[in-house]
Structure formats: structure tokens, C-alpha cells
Design a protein that fits this description.
The protein is of the alpha+beta class. The protein has helices at 3-12, 52-57, 75-90, 94-102, 108-119, 123-141, 146-152, 158-169, 173-179; strands spanning 22-25, 30-32, 46-49, 61-62. It has 3 domains: 3-62, DNA Methylphosphotriester Repair Domain; 75-124; 133-179, Homeodomain-like (Arc Repressor Mutant, subunit A, Orthogonal Bundle), CATH 1.10.10.60. A 4-stranded mixed sheet has the order 3-1-2-4. Helix 3 (75-90) runs antiparallel to helix 4 (94-102).
């Protein structure tokens, strides 16, 4: 690969070249991935390296923006995974879940977009799926009262649980239980 090809990849912020080479900026002392979103430096101020170790040995430090020191830096994936773990532990407690998610420093809308890109559904859809799966388990495997099941999976009222369950399953919780005897 020629230096001109590498330079063009840097100008395009081309992620396909990440891991193939790194570039360093002489004036800042920083080395980056080709996909780094920082403003492109002047061509005369950069040099290229085959790997991050060579850049470090030449005296450059990793970029804090593209995290050129990490092999697999995927902040959006990490956010999505963190949200998923929070949902799995707090899906029964919607207010607490919302509070926790708001503490990420990212808007709810952005979190929903990140989560959907990673998992193909919104955080609310995922939480609803968990609630429905748990409710079905309780209905099939226990003799708990339906109202107790509703509260245990995070519903504030029996009527809200019935509406949700019937919308998702096409039958009421009572009918579901009858069709799946213990």
C-alpha cells in the first residue's frame, strides 16, 4: 500500500483500513486509526506505521478520540450492552430503569437508536419481551394469582397487565394459563 493510498483513507475516515495501518501527527505527538473523526492534519505533518506498537516506539501517544491503543474499541456496542444488562436486572422497576439509563449521559432517544442498531429492537421492546416471557413462565409453571404475576413483572395494575398480555399474545392471561396446564 502506498502512502498516497493511506493518505486518501485518512481523508475519507475509512474504517476498512483500521488495523492495517496507523498514522501519527508530528505536531501533536498523537497516533490515530484511519477512521479517526478528528480534523485531518496537514499532509506534511503525518507519518504512517504498520501497527500501534511502532507508533508508540516512535514516541507517539494514542488518540483519545479514536482510541487507537485499543484493538476493538466500539463505544456504541458497549453502551448497548450496558443498557441491555440494566434492562435485564431492572425491567420490573420501570422508574428505576429509566433513572439508571438517564445516568449514562446520553439522551433516551440516542440510547434507543444505539440499542436498536445493536439488537434490532428498542430498549422498551426488549424490556416488554422480558416481562412477557417472565409472565408466561409464571402462568405455566406456578399457581400464583394473576394479579401477583402482574405486579411481579412490573405492572402497576391488573388491567394494564391484561391489556399488555392480550395485545402481545392475542389471548388473556387466564386463557393462556388454561391452555398450558401445570
Amino acid at each position: 500500500m502506498t502512502e498516497e493510498e493511506m493518505w486518501q483513507a485518512v481523508l475519507r475516515n475509512d474504517a476498512e483500513y483500521d488495523g492495517i495501518f496507523f498514522y501519527a501527527v508530528k505536531t501533536t505527538g498523537i497516533y490515530c486509526r484511519p477512521s479517526c473523526k478528528s480534523r485531518p492534519p496537514k499532509r506534511e505533518n503525518i507519518c504512517f506505521f504498520e501497527n500501534s506498537e511502532q507508533a508508540r516506539q516512535a514516541g507517539f501517544r494514542p488518540c483519545k478520540r479514536c482510541r487507537s491503543d485499543l484493538i476493538d474499541y466500539q463505544p456504541m456496542k458497549q453502551i448497548a450492552e450496558h443498557v441491555k444488562r440494566k434492562i435485564e436486572t431492572l425491567y420490573r422497576e420501570q422508574a428505576k430503569l429509566s433513572e439508571e439509563v438517564n445516568g449514562f449521559g446520553v439522551t433516551e432517544r440516542r440510547i434507543a437508536d444505539i440499542f436498536k442498531d445493536e439488537y434490532g429492537m428498542t430498549p422498551k421492546t426488549y424490556a416488554d419481551k422480558l416481562r412477557l416471557d417472565k409472565a408466561k413462565q409464571f402462568l405455566i409453571k406456578t399457581d400464583m394469582k394473576i394479579i401477583d404475576i402482574a405486579y411481579s413483572v412490573g405492572f402497576g395494575s391488573l388491567s394494564a397487565f391484561y391489556r399488555f398480555f392480550e395485545k402481545e399474545m392475542g389471548i388473556t392471561p387466564s386463557e393462556f394459563r388454561k391452555s398450558h396446564p401445570i
